[in-house]
Structure formats: C-alpha cells, structure tokens
Amino acid sequence: MGVLTTYFIAGSDAEAAALVDTGPAGLPSVDGVDATVQAGTLLALLTGRDYDEIVEDRAWARLVSDPDDESAWVVSMPEPFTSALASATDERLAETVVPWSQTEEFWGNGDPDHLLPMLREWRDLARRATAEGAALYCWMAL
Predict the structure, then answer these.
(1) Which residue, among 63, 113, 99, 59, has the nearest Cα to 82 in the 3D structure?
(2) Per-residue pLDDT tens digits for 95-139
(3) Which residues partner with 73 through β-bridges?
(4) What are the DSSP E strand ranges found in 13-103?
(5) Which of 2, 15, 37, 121 has the fewest CB atoms inside 10 Å of its own CB, making it the most exposed?
(6) Among residues 20, 38, 48, 51, which one has the least CA distance to residue 137?
(7) Torsion angle of the four alpha carbons 118, 119, 120, 125, in this order, in degrees rounded to the nearest 10
(8) Is the entire prediction scored with pTM above 0.90?
C-alpha cells in the first residue's frame, strides 16, 4: 500500500484543508513525490541550503488539515519552496534532476527521464500559485 501524493494550489490553509476528504479533483494539480523528504531534498539541491535546516523549519510541510483524520491529510508547502521551484529554469531543473534521482529517497535509481517532466509540471504549478497570490499544498492519502 502506497501513499497518493498530489500538489495543488489554494488561496488559504482553510481552503486547502477543506479538500482533505475529496482531494483536489478538478483543480490544477500535479501528482508528485513525498512532501517532506523528497521535496526537501529537491529544495536543498535547487538552493544549496542544508537539508536538515529545511526539514527542521516548523513551516516545512506543515499540517493544515484535521490531525485526527487518519486516511488523508493536507500540508502546506512554504513560500521558499514555491519560490525556488517557480524560479527554476528548464536548464536548472535538468541539472538538478540527475542528482535528485540518485538520492536515497529514490533508492539511488530514480529515472531522470520520468522525473524531469514531473518537475516541469510542478514548476509550472508553482508559477501559477505565485501569479495568483496563492500557495502550494500537498494532499496525501493512504
């Protein structure tokens, strides 16, 4: 059994949390990777920031949905993540995808050819969030 992971845009934590039971169906979204570790390693590679510093920040993947819901949850992705992703060029994503695909979280053998299109979609979603004055969130479900 795996975890479904979908990134989406919302105008507020309350708006995002309201989607915990249904998920972001019908909204602009991108199916992606784990919002804590894999997104954290991506941010570290994009910015040069220390991974431990990223994930220890209280704003990192902050739970916005009801903590008692055990089958699905929604977390917010902090502005520095959205900003770093939104500002990434195609060239920067191409430089980043190979070392990212080789991280422990991908068991050292993620497929860059599969991950790069997902990164571009994720980047485009981050750009849209920025343009709309909204934020990125991640819906996860068992």
Answers:
(1) 59
(2) 999 999 999 989 878 999 999 999 999 999 999 999 999 999 999
(3) 140
(4) 29-31, 62-63, 72-76
(5) 2
(6) 20
(7) 90
(8) yes
- Which structure tokens are listed for 81? 């993540």
Question: Is the separation of the CB atoms in 32 and 118 below 8 Å?
Answer: yes
Q: What angle do CA 45, 115, 8 make, to 5 degrees?
A: 85
DSSP state of 78: P
Contact 82, 135 (CB under 8 A): yes
The one-letter amino acid code at 78 reads: P
Tokens of residue 91, six digits: 């060239």
Question: By three-state DSSP, how is residue 99 classified?
Answer: helix
